[in-house]
Specification:
- The protein is mainly alpha-helical.
- It folds into two domains: about 10-185 and about 305-335, Rossmann fold (3-Layer(aba) Sandwich), CATH 3.40.50.620; about 210-300, Orthogonal Bundle (Tyrosyl-Transfer RNA Synthetase), CATH 1.10.240.
- The chain is about 55% helix and about 5% strand.
- The protein is built from 13 helices and five strands.
- Strands 1-2-3 form a three-stranded parallel beta sheet.
- Strand 1 (about 10-15), helix 1 and strand 2 (about 40-45) form a beta-alpha-beta unit.
- It is globular, with a radius of gyration of 21 Å.
- The structure holds adenosine monophosphate (AMP) and tryptophan.
- Adenosine monophosphate binds near residues 192 and 203.
Length: about 350
């Protein structure tokens, strides 16, 4: 059978639980914005159905969904260039998710490290949704036949599972229907670490607010968080190799590189031999210069929930127009009778 060639199409998602962090921005959103100009259709989704795999206060979930929409637009996602919407308004995600629950194997899910991390010792009490979540993520991607998925390093395993699901579906039904999606994990900061512990990733839900930079933090808070960020006593080395075994130092260099749009090597070339007393304030100034315009615009957009909701509705209509026919074709391939 001839290999089908799929039109290049970008899809990615972000959960609306908690606020946006610098990790989200450097690991994902910045790349999403750039990909708008690369000749591919771009589809970006606020994945509210993923958020409820752990309990969310309904009021906070609604506010968080609008906040993330505002953040994406403020960061440069243009609703005229990209399809931008929230997941639950396009039922094809949940419907295809069910089909994929029946394709994915329990053994595959058992290998998902994010489930193990999130469920911890209390896996028996985790929701079934948290366990099945990677199959829903595969549905998010494959409902659009997306070929490229820009994500942070932590999502690599889930995109690989998406490839496994597509391969098994195609094999089991003897079709060449779903594309084998590529993860796009690029840039100097694909894994932004916690500012207080360089062995953990920066996340929305960590215990202390001091361990992360939030997109809505003001200048004084950003400066304070970088000042208090954990480091070792040594100055910055002469070469990048000198950062081996210094995760906190490496993290701050990578953050600088991501914000300045330069390589970590270029950061080291500029700051070789500098102490933290020089580097940290420079990093804070850079972060404020990059983030303040985004957070200002974000606050302005958040004041008009009606407009954000209208944009989500329009994006959902556009998304639905792509996903529904793919879902209908999937039902047909599987043998489900569609007589209405
Ligand atoms: P989430 O907030 O978990 O929905 O993540 C949304 C996107 O941000 C995904 O592509 C993640 O890989 C990315 N992301 C989240 N945290 C980080 C981080 N600390 N470093 C790099 N990317 C991240
Ligand atoms: N699971 C992703 C995360 O936790 C979010 C996500 C859901 C996603 N569906 C997606 C990312 C589809 C890329 C493509 O960050």
């Amino acid at each position: 059978m001839a290999e089908t060639t799929f039109t290049p199409r970008v899809f990615s998602g972000i959960k609306p639980s908690g606020g946006l962090t610098l990790g989200n921005y450097l690991g994902a959103i910045k790349r999403w914005v750039e990909m708008q100009g690369e000749g591919m259709e771009t589809i970006y989704c606020v994945v509210d159905l993923h958020a409820i795999t752990v309990w969310q206060d309904p009021h906070d979930l609604r506010a968080g969904t609008r906040e993330v929409m505002a953040g994406l637009i403020a960061a440069g996602i243009d609703p005229e260039k990209s399809i931008l919407f929230n997941q639950s308004q396009v039922p094809a995600h949940a419907e295809l998710g069910w089909i994929f629950n029946c394709v994915a194997r329990v053994g595959w899910m058992n290998r998902m490290t994010q489930f193990k991390d999130k469920a911890g010792k209390n896996a028996e009490k985790a929701s079934l949704g948290l366990y099945a979540y990677p199959a829903l993520m595969a549905a998010d991607i494959l409902a659009y036949h997306a070929t490229h998925v820009p994500v942070g390093e932590d999502q690599k395993q889930h995109v690989e599972l998406t490839r496994d699901i597509a391969t098994k579906f195609n094999h089991d039904y003897k079709v060449d229907f779903f594309p084998i999606t590529e993860p796009v994990i690029e840039g100097p900061a694909t894994r932004v670490m916690n500012l207080r512990d360089g062995s953990k990733k920066m996340s929305k839900s960590g215990e202390s607010d001091m361990e992360r930079i939030n997109m809505l933090d003001d200048a004084a808070t950003i400066a304070k968080k970088f000042k208090k960020a954990r480091t070792d006593p040594d100055p910055l080395p002469e070469t990048l190799d000198g950062l081996a075994g210094r995760p906190e130092a490496r993290n701050l260099v990578d953050i600088y590189a991501g914000l300045a749009d330069i390589t970590p090597e270029a950061v080291i070339a500029e700051y070789a031999g500098a102490g933290w007393g020089r580097f940290k304030p420079a990093l804070a100034d850079l972060a404020v210069a990059k983030l303040a315009p985004i957070s200002e615009e974000m606050k302005r957009l958040m004041a008009d929930a009606g407009e954000l909701d209208r944009l989500m509705a329009r994006g959902a209509d556009q998304a639905e127009a792509i996903a529904r026919p793919i879902l209908e074709r999937t039902y047909d391939i599987v043998g489900l009778v569609r007589s209405r």
